[in-house]
Amino acid sequence: MNRRKKLYGFLIILFFGLFLPPPLDAQERTNAGEQREQPLEGYKEIAAFELKQMLDSNRKIVIVNVLSEIEYAFQHITGSINIPITKMATTKDLPVDKSTPLIFHCLSDR
What we know:
Blueprint: H1 2-19, H2 26-36, H3 48-56, E1 62-65, H4 69-74, E2 81-82, E3 102-105
Parallel strand pairs: 1-2, 1-3
């Protein structure tokens, strides 16, 4: 019985060792992160402190929260408007003045 457990353990380790891809080295992880982190052309990602500076300067901006209405009701940035991402293409809630900066906000990294 004890031999059988050892054999099964060895076979499991052998299986994972043969069929799992090798781990990424540090350089590959960095390159993968750089590829994922590129913002779309024509858009700029900003940090929370940059948004705070914009709000404190009384600069005219529109903060668009793209989460669902339920998530927006639970928590949102004061003064932001809610346009769920699923309704973005058909909304009429965006400002008419095309020079007004739009800040899109969600809870994820992307």
